[in-house]
Amino acid sequence: MRRLLLAAACVLITAVPAFAQTLRIALRQDLDVLDTTLATTYVGRIVFAGLCDKLFDIDEKLNIVPQLATGYEWADDRTLVLHLRSGVTFQNGEALDATAVKYSLERHLTLQGSFRKSEISSIDHVEVVDPATVRVVLKSPSGAFLAQLTDRSGMILPPKATEAAGKDFAAHPVCSGPFRFVERVPQDHVTLERFPGYWDAKDVHFDKLVYQVLVDPSVRLANLKVGTVDITTDVVPTDAAAVKADPKLHLVVYDALGYFGITNNIANGPQANNPYGRSALVRQALDLAIDRAALVKVVFNDMFTPTVQAVPPSSPFYDAAAQVPERDVTKAKALLKQAGVALPVKLDLLTFNDSDILQASEVIQSMAAEAGFDVHIQAMEFASSIQASVRGEYQAYMIGWSGRVDIDGNTYAFLHSGQGNNASHYSDATVDKLLDEARGTVDVAKRRTLYAQMWPILRQDLPITYLWNGRNIVGMSAKLNGFRPVPDGMIRVQGLEMAK
Amino acid sequence: MRGHLGTRIAQIIPTLLLVSVLVFCLQQLMPGDPALVMAGEERGDPQVLAQIRAELWLDRSLPVQYLHWMGNVLQGNLGFSWRIRQPVAQLVFQKLPVTLQLGAMAFAIAVLIGVPTGIIAAVYRNGFWDYVANAVGLAGLSTPNFWLGIMMILLISVQLGWLPPSGYVPLTEDWRQSLATTIMPAFVLGNAIAAILMRHTRSAMLTSLDQDYVRTARAKGLREFVVVIRHALRNALIPVVTLGALELGTLFSGAVLTEQVFSIPGFGKMVVDAVFNRDYPVVQGVVLVTAFLYVMLNLLADVLYVVINPRLRGLEG
Predict the structure, then answer these.
(1) Taking CB atoms and an 8 Å cutoff, what residues of chain B touch A112?
(2) Which stretches within A39-126 are classed as H helix?
């Protein structure tokens, strides 16, 4: 019996794996389809970061930097000329040239079910000037267009392999990134292997990447501690201290692109017809009743940034003048009195089933009560809450946005009249004009001025009560060097290496 | 006996049809538009939503959607996953062995723990070992799977470093690694069933041990071990086998939570992801296959019941 037990113990102990030259990356959920044109998930973008290069990348300060394109110039305000890197090949050996760029952009625009179409719909047509030069002609000037090429819209696919694979492309995707596709087991993992022909091979220090789906935050942390994963994004704020305290691990916290806030139903159906929906003064009162700094401290261990705007402090469009107000319950009460509403002001706060967000809602409920609000929290499963917001079946909705590189991606669709993501049905002619003008110019200084004019109006009307900018919280092995904290939260494998 | 089996087999098809209608109707009652979920953060574009609805037949009436799906099922096509665009049959084929392995290991653990402790508890009725077995059983029944799972990960993987905390390796790829990744979840899953089996084995054994034939066996001078195992246990096992078959359903439902905690890519994890992502073809496919398996396992239990109890062999209907 003792021999048997000893043998069983040996079997189990030797079965704990050792992963040399393999980088294991934890994902918080399973990704969707591995096709750059059809994909929608955030975690899918993390896998694409190993599989596919883009025309441009962004750096830690959100500057647009070369990747497959070595440079660009605006021939006029509607014509973008791209200069491509020479000698780049796809993982199947096809050459990456201007024809491939034209093919990929046109595929994004025309493939049935494309989710990229709306991102680059400003393209009128694409011309091949020579094998290393592409001319992209826009329908109208677009200040946000270039930033779209730093994500999936800028990922270039090999025309022959893509056409040959047809609808099965996602089962065996081919790209031009540092790692090529090996296998995918849905709900479990995606494996990529080193692509020897990569144009920047000197910066690639692993033979294999394994993206492991680990949904539960405690299990992600356990895997990180044991060493069965080397790096994980989305460490929950309450686990950050445990990562920090572990000498074998390293914690990196840096700005993310998105925000979290309360979307207020101003004109979306009958549920907008209440004191909170009708009166900006009542919304201002709630805004003043919330102590964002305390909220972030209590719920998120002080790891997020209190805010009143849609972009993080690292964005070139962050407006230093739009600062978070001090909590002022007296003024909030005065505003409610000025609005002439009966107290307490009843308000249904819709939220989704996430323990942190529910806790944040409860903190808001408690703070608001002191100012004269009676907040009732309605918790729903995520998909149901989204549907309720689209249909206008809500008064105020706790919801965030993962964020885009350019400010246009964080504002236009949520604040401009008639846009699909404008769930509050907010409509203001001046804000519309400022958003349109800022979108229609490539001059960054001018755009910054236009957005700066918009925040004071939004602070008065409050279609969205911005609460905090999220931050990326990444846990990794202390031996892992070369990690670049870029706000989009992607794990760039170029330059990453494991110390001996 | 043959007639009885024939009737049971004939019941399978209407049962599965009923299940297919039920699951199709129930998921329509779920709030949350699948097109909105599919569109992700592109949901703001009405054109995108309309395109998804048309592509997935969501713009047709419910009976048309059902008949379209059922027509394909009857031809052996369970449809395509809306989210990852792979055939549902392929996903089922990929995931089923994982859950079957987990379930088989969990059931083996449950039997290995539950039956012997039940026998010991009955033999030492109201004694120290009976109280110990009952206390263990009660603890097994009262401990939630997800809590036990997380605690075991923290203790056995993080603190002691004996086993990997999560994941799965197929048996065919590396059997040792496969056992290492599944032994902990199998224990968590089998734990509650072990407790139920223990209590039923104890109760059935107590009844058997009081029977005349057991007294006769003892009077013949047989050793107590032989009396308990060969005479009392054989009769006591009949209700335990029936209960075991019923508990296979508990295994499948328990696998949903256990696979989620241990990140095992099996049926349970697939169906949870599919429900949250409103991936209807996957939900329908998984439920249909699970119902089929459940019906077949109960049929198997009926056969085993007859094998164990010779008195039923001559019965018809």
Answers:
(1) 51, 55
(2) 42-51, 98-110
With contacts defined as CB-CB under 8 Å, which chain B residues touch A420?
Answer: 43-46
Pair of tokens at residue A160: 């022959």
Q: Looking at this predicted complex, what is its ipTM? A: 0.75
Q: Which residues pair with A54 in a beta bridge?
A: A155
**β partners of residue A135:** A81, A127
- The token pair that represents A84 in the structure block: 């491509």
Contact A420 B45 (CB under 8 A): yes
Global pTM reads 0.84
Closest residue on chain B to A35 (Cα) = B84
**Half-sphere exposure (Cβ direction) of A322: Cα atoms closer than 13 Å:** 26
Tell me which residue in B48, B83, B91 faces A32 most closely, judged by beta carbons: B83
CA B37, B40, B43: angle at the middle one, nearest 5? 90
Tell me the C-alpha distance between A63 and B42, whole Å. Answer: 24
Residue B232 in tokens:
């009392």
> Residue B39: its chain A contacts at CB < 8 A?
40, 115
- Are A253 and A235 in contact by the 8 Å Cβ rule? The answer is no
Burial of B142 (0-12, 13-18, 19+ CB in 10 A): exposed
Give the pair of three-digit tokens for residue A448: 């910054």
β-bridge mates for residue A193, sequence order: A180, A208
In chain B, residues with a C-beta closer than 8 Å to the C-beta of A383 are: 31-33, 36-37, 276-278
- Both tokens of A452, joined, read 């700066």
pLDDT tens for residues B270-317?
888 888 888 888 988 888 888 888 888 778 877 777 776 666 665 543
Whether residues A384 and B157 touch (CB distance < 8 A) is answered with no
Q: What is the DSSP letter of B166?
A: S
